[in-house]
Amino acid sequence: MSLSYTKKISKTRLYWLCQLMGWCLVSTYWAYTVYTRDNYGIFYTFLNYVLDVAIGIILTHMYRIYALKANWSQLPIKKLIISVIPSILLLALLYVLINNLKWYAYWTFLAGEDKNFFEAIMYWDPILLTGLRLMSIWILAYHLYHYYQKEVVTARENAQLSLIAKQAQLDNLSAQLNPHFLFNSLNSIKSLVIENPNVARRAIDLLSDLLRSSLYEKDKDLTPIKNELALVYDYIELEKLRFEERLQLKTNIEEDLGQYKIPTLSIQLLIENAIKHGIDLKVDGGVINLKIKKKDSHIHITVENPGIINQNKSVGLGLENLKKRLEIQYKGKAGFSLTATENNHVCAELIIPMHINDEKI
């Protein structure tokens, strides 16, 4: 039995337990009233008690079924209030009608008194106020519970997203700070200090920018595409000190996309993987093609490089973290794929909703 199924069963049991306990408690007052004031007797008092519990449960459960079907728990507060107020009035009227029918049936068929049907049906004071009060309390409690549950889930997802994002950024920082990367970069810089001081200074600036970005961008979940590209260009320029002509980057980026935001270090991660699992393994190196375009209110980012997909090897930790971040950040509206293309190339594609603000989707 899956965990989600178990949680669903647990919530269903809690719902029915609260329904039964709540309406039993409320109906106890009315049972006491008819027993002491109207002399119903023990049997009819118990029968009236059972019917009161059943009426309350049936009416509110009908509301719950409709509310779930209409997905009211996801509505903004203002729209929810507009939907709820007519529902309370309708439930209160049904509560009055059913209770009056119950009352009429008892006094006519069981007590043997001659009661006017229409007068019995139209009796509303104070039962209408009772119905309004009970239905308002029930509906308020129901939606407050769902609002609380939604807030708990949102807080949990935000915490998980923050954790995964920070882990991904730490992984990225670790990759940049690993001895192999630093050793190659510093050796390249060392060899340039005498031969070409200007290029050496540029290389030091690039390495400094990369480390600064990794350290100070780690608290941001999203970053503008133009900022991400600036980081990518610095990273490529620094890596070209080692690969020289073996590493080439070609870009095809649509205009006016620079302000749209994407997960921080996402393109950089794809470029880094393209170098590590593609270019670095080829004697002649190769070309990395980076394309960014918009289509159907989404941004499509593709990174294609020479290489093959090892079917016996699982996706790296960085890509796994990226997929989890996309799922939490965009609620299933974003996607990531890694596919083999013709001529022994690999294509990584990100599909992200077009988004400028920082808030979650």
Q: How would you explain this protein's 3D organization?
A:
With 361 residues, the chain is α+β, with helices and mostly antiparallel strands. It has two domains: 154 residues, no CATH class; 176 residues, 2-Layer Sandwich (Heat Shock Protein 90), CATH 3.30.565. It contains ten helices and seven strands. The protein has a five-stranded mixed sheet. Strands 1-3 form a two-stranded antiparallel sheet. The longest helix is centred in the middle third of the chain and has 51 residues. It starts with a helix and ends in an 8-residue tail after the last strand.
Mean pLDDT: 81
Percent strand:
5-15%
Superfamily (CATH H level) name of the largest domain: Histidine kinase-like ATPase, C-terminal domain
Low-confidence stretches: none
Task: Draw up the topology in text.
Blueprint: H1 3-36, H2 41-69, H3 77-110, H4 117-121, H5 127-177, H6 179-195, H7 197-216, E1 222-224, H8 225-243, E2 247-253, E3 261-263, H9 266-277, E4 286-295, E5 298-306, H10 317-330, E6 335-341, E7 345-353
Parallel strand pairs: 2-4
Antiparallel strand pairs: 1-3, 4-5, 5-7, 6-7
Helix pairs in contact: 1-2, 2-3, 3-5, 5-7, 5-10, 6-7, 6-8, 7-8, 8-9
GO cellular component, one term: membrane
Domain Signal transduction histidine kinase internal region: 168-247
Pfam families: His_kinase
